[in-house]
Amino acid sequence: MAERLSLGGKGRHDMRDDYLIFTPDEVDLARSPLRGRCEAETYVLGAFNPGMTRLASGNLLLMVRVAEALVDPQARSLRWDAERYVVDAWPAARVDTSDPRIIKLTDEPWTPLALTSISWLLPVELTPDGEAVVAVHYDRAIVPAAPYQAYGIEDARISRIDGRWWMTCCSVSPERLGTSLYSSDDARDWRLEGLVLDHQNKDMLLFEGRIDWRYWAQTRPLGETWFAYPPGSDWRAGPAINLATSPDLLHWKPHEAPGLRPHAATVSTARMGGGAPPMLTDDGWLSLWHGVEPGGEVGIYRTYWTLLDRDDPSRVIRTEHDALIEPAPHLTAHIAHQKYLDSVVFTTGIVDLGDQYLVASGEADLACRLTRIDKARFA
To answer: Where are the domains positioned within the chain?
Structure first.
């Protein structure tokens, strides 16, 4: 059953513009899907990167990524295996454990990774304005269910298309790092449709509506080989946001025209990837995405925006090099002792609030952040 929370009265006058709505301390580990199915003691490394949508009731739903980690990793990793969670021990001489999130196998030329945590998805229901949590649905948690999810399920993105909800997630395993698809009639009970993008293609975002009777998606393939643009080009080689189309949401064909590419005029798109599912506005498709500036352990993640043509999403109408949302360390100051990353905001959802948009992000790979942005900002 869902855990229901009492609410204080809130009026429009005291709504916040930028705030944390859900943190690791608010996850009840006694109700975790790992309880009774894992031999090791765990804690919540992060509750972050929430997919977001509006339910038929009017309430909002966050699909929160809960990263449940080993209290004492010591070169050990967590893995799902046929309805149970197992701990794999790695010889200390083979690994680099300097990053608390991962184990790097240094004795192989391609440096495979194992994870010290395993991620599952927790539905958290909010009031229609996003100001408060009304229920946490532990009984509807989405957990690994296939071999290609052995290391967990990450970073949900939710789109409502033709009255039905669709959710893409990154599924992680030794087999592949790919995109899996879920569907639902009500955004409460979800069905796993299977893998739709293969190895090293993640951050898949479904456009919230069809274009010329086709479904469209933004994708982001990874890799280590990028061919250079000619000298003087507006573009820089590297990870980019591509486009794909489908007749049925299950079978995808890459679109031949490029999507959003790293721009040579800024170092903030040295890496880039999808953020919130593109939303149709009067002016075109509003796309929020993340750009990464080199620096520190993982780089500095910020959220940017681009407006795409409503009939041809490969054509950019407007965009900005200035960030829309910056990392906000002050928001996590009260839980700073739990932080293991800095300078990261990772946007994963957007809903319409009338004169504003409400944007959902993961802050510092730790907590769920909501940000109100006036629609006039994109004019």
So the answer is: 18-224+234-378
Q: Is residue 12 scored above 80 in pLDDT?
A: no
DSSP string covering 3-26, please? EE-------GGG--SEEEEE-GGG
Tokens of 16: 């916040």
Contact 245, 252 (CB under 8 A): yes
Q: Using alpha carbons, select from 128, 101, 127 the residue that is nearest to residue 114.
A: 101
Give the SS3 label for residue 303: strand
**By three-state DSSP, how is residue 369 classified?**
strand
Both tokens of 244, joined, read 């794909």
CA 165/CA 349 separation, integer angstroms: 14
Q: Are 324 and 348 spatial neighbours (Cβ–Cβ below 8 Å)?
A: no
Residue 98: band (very low, low, confident or very high) from pLDDT cuts 50, 70, 90: confident
Cα(112)–Cα(222) distance, integer angstroms: 15
Instruction: Tell me which DSSP letter residue 260 carries.
Output: B
C-alpha pair distances (Å), 78 with each of 113, 240, 272 = 12, 31, 28
SS3 185: coil
**Is CATH 2.115.10.20 correct for 18-224+234-378?**
yes
Q: What are phi and psi of 229, to 5 degrees?
A: -75, 155
Residues belonging to the chain? 379
Residue 359 and residue 369 in contact, taking contact as beta carbons nearer than 8 Å: no
- Are 87 and 115 spatial neighbours (Cβ–Cβ below 8 Å)? no
Cα 88 to Cα 52: distance, rounded to the nearest angstrom: 33
pLDDT per residue as tens digits for the range 310-346? 999 999 999 999 999 999 999 999 999 999 998 999 9
3-state secondary structure of 94: helix
